[in-house]
Amino acid sequence: MRSFFDTAGEWEGEPFRTTGLPAVAAADRSSLDRLAAACAVVKAHFLASPGWHFRIHEGSLTFRHGADRHRSVKLFVDKGNVLAQKCGLTITADPVVIGVELSGENPFVRSTVRNFLRSAYGELYLDPREHRPDTLEIIRNCKYWIVPHNDHFYDILFLPRGACAYEVDPQLKQRYEKNITPWAGRQVG
Q1: What is the spatial distance between Cα 136 and Cα 141, in angstroms, rounded to a whole number?
Q2: DSSP labels for 5-18?
C-alpha cells in the first residue's frame, strides 16, 4: 500500500501553450459552443458543490476552488489537434480538452478519479500511471502545465465532437457562452 504522502511525479509535467480564444473563434465558432457545453457539464455534474470560481484566461477557462488553490479544472480547445498529436492520439479535429489538477489530492482520491476517467473515457483520458500505446509502452502519459502558469499539473482528457455522454443544462451553457463570447471577439494578434 502506498503512503498518504506518495506524490512522486505529481508535481511535474510538460508545458503546453493553448490557442487564444479569438483565434479559436475565428476558425470555428462551433468550438466555442462545445467549450461552453463542456463547462456546463463540468460545473453541473462534477463541481456542483459551493466554492468553485470560474475564470477566463487568454486561451483557456478555469474552475478553481476558493478554499484550495490547487483544486483546479482547466478547459480549452486543442486547435489543430496539437496536444492530441503530441500525446500520440488520432481523434477528430479540435477537441475540447479538460485538464484536472489532482496533484494536491491524497492518493486515494487521485486513484479514484483516475480510475473513473479511465473507465469512462478509455484512451481519451491520458492516465499518467499508464504507458502511451504509441510508444510500445516505453513512455508514460504526461501531465501538462499550461504556459505561462507552471504551478498546476493537469491530467488530460480529450472530448472530441459528440464524446460527452452527460446532459447539458441549456441555461448553464448559455451563461458560459455569455462569458466566453466577449473574449472570443477580441482582435486576433
Answers
A1: 12
A2: T--TTTT--EEEPP
For the question of whether the overall pTM of this predicted structure is more than 0.85, the answer is: yes
Residue in this structure with the C-alpha cell 505529481, named with its chain if needed: 10
The residue whose grid cell reads 491520458 is: 126
End-to-end CA distance of the chain: 51
DSSP 135: G
Q: Which three cell numbers stand for residue 9?
A: 511525479
DSSP track, 71-93: -EEEEEE-GGGHHHHHTT---SS
Q: What mean pLDDT is reported for the chain?
A: 86
- pLDDT tens for residues 30-85? 899 999 999 999 999 999 889 999 999 888 999 999 888 889 999 999 999 999 99
